[in-house]
Write a structure and sequence with these properties.
Oligomer: single chain
Order of helices and strands: HHHHHHHHHHHHHHHHHHHH
Strand content: under 5%
Helix content: over 70%
Number of domains: 1
Number of helices: 20
Largest sheet: none
Structural class: mainly alpha
Length: 425
């Protein structure tokens, strides 16, 4: 994102009067409230983050229109898309769309495309409009929402999902995995805000981190557990040396993307059976076998890939007929449980290179930020990457919405820090 202050996010110089002004003010409150209440919403309905993100985006856009700021918003959006980061992102979007043309199941590909990119669109709109508008009260509401969501889920887990059973609602414990991951990605953002407050704010940051950690530890989400530790470790390291951490991250990302087609073979060679036996509950052996299967599929079409979102039906494609017989069955697991492998399998080397370009440009921008914001940004990247490399499918709308919301909050925290610095000069 551009480091300049968003014109569309500033109050318009030509203020609306009367009812229009009150309506605009109410819509800004709805936008901030929807983003802040997302954690509680996810704890109740575990795929609802796109609804909250979409409500926030539509409300903010309507407020801008009422205030007469639509031309400024469109100009700012165009300006951000004209940056190297924006152009690379647009190229990735275009490649995802074009790849549907050679997908053997274009309906599945179109559905995945819409689910993922709609959440990205909502997040982009909010990133342009909202950061300069975000209030301190909204951040405190988000902190309270995260705490309530964590407590709600711990109570449910501690009582064997008694409330959901009484209400006749789905009582499966794993439905809390998604809201746990949402808490994980929001934690470094809140840390960036709370740690620069007074003593109470810093105490709240520590308390919230402990609460989220306990909730994640009690859940069934191994991905959230791994991601949370990555968040904590990278946040601490980045507070000391953010540029060094950013450099190390760049090297790691290059290695991960470049080696993705071979991760199954590497893991199969380097990880002994004894380790797999100790990690049986986390299905480490299963993941290696899945990576071997999708790695074989990548080798059959490494340039173009099978088409965006094709992974759920990869076992039914022509590529599956060309892979080794022992690798065909696990092509039907839904996705490779590794975003880098999924990008290679669906979008080929072109998609992989564009993804790496986006990541490296992001890291370059992060390295120039204030220390606390850089630490939160790197921690957010670490957590999402840890999850993406062992967890769910890459294009799920709820995940894009949760991460997108965290980025919007992070931009708001950065804007608040910049304002704080300017007022103290």
């Amino acid at each position: 994102m551009s480091s300049r202050m968003s014109k569309a996010a500033k109050p318009s110089t030509a203020r609306p009067a009367g009812k229009a002004e009150g309506m605009a003010r109410g819509l800004w409150h709805v936008a901030m409230g929807a983003l802040a209440l997302m954690p509680v919403g996810m704890a109740i309905a575990h795929r609802s983050s796109p609804v909250f993100l979409g409500l926030a985006a539509v409300s903010a856009l309507l407020a801008v229109m009422i205030e007469g700021g639509l031309p400024d918003f469109l100009g700012e959006a165009r300006a951000r898309l004209a940056t190297p980061f924006g152009m690379t992102g647009a190229a990735f979007l275009a490649w995802c769309f074009v790849s549907i043309g050679w997908s053997e199941y274009p309906g599945i590909s179109l559905h995945a495309f819409g689910e993922f990119w709609l959440s990205v669109l909502f997040a982009f709109m909010l990133a342009v409009i909202l950061p300069e508008r975000m209030s301190r009260r909204a951040f405190w509401l988000l902190a309270l929402s995260c705490a309530i969501a964590a407590i709600m889920m711990m109570v449910e887990l501690g009582t064997g999902m008694a409330l959901r059973r009484a209400l006749g609602v789905r009582p499966d414990i794993f439905i809390f995995n998604r809201p746990m991951l949402t808490l994980m990605v929001l934690l470094p953002v809140l840390a960036a805000f709370l740690l620069r407050q007074d003593r109470l704010g810093r105490a709240c940051a520590v308390g919230l981190a402990v609460l989220v950690a306990v909730a994640v530890a009690r859940s069934e989400s191994g991905a959230a557990f791994v991601g949370l530790w990555a968040v904590i470790a990278v946040f601490a390291a980045s507070c000391l040396a953010p540029r060094l951490v950013a450099l190390a991250a760049a090297i790691a990302f290059v290695a991960v993307i470049a080696l993705a087609p071979f991760l199954g073979t590497i893991g199969d060679t380097l990880i002994p059976d004894a380790v797999h036996e100790r990690l049986a509950d986390d299905h480490s052996r299963d993941r290696i076998d899945i990576w071997l299967s999708f790695g074989d599929a990548i080798g059959q079409d490494p340039v173009l890939g099978g088409g965006f979102g094709i992974s759920p039906l990869m076992d039914r494609t022509a590529v599956a007929d060309r892979v080794a017989p022992q690798h065909r069955t696990l092509l039907g697991v839904g996705h490779p449980h590794n975003a880098a492998i999924q990008i290679w399998a669906e979008l080929g080397i072109v998609g992989a290179v564009l993804t790496l370009m986006i990541i490296l440009q992001t890291l370059r921008t992060i390295a120039r930020q204030k220390r606390l914001v850089a630490a939160a940004s790197l921690a957010l990247m670490a957590g999402t990457t840890a999850v993406a490399l062992v967890g769910h499918g890459a294009w799920q709308g709820w995940w894009a919405a949760s991460v997108g919301a965290a980025i919007v909050w992070l931009l708001a925290a950065r804007a608040g820090l910049q304002t704080q610095v300017e007022t103290t000069r």
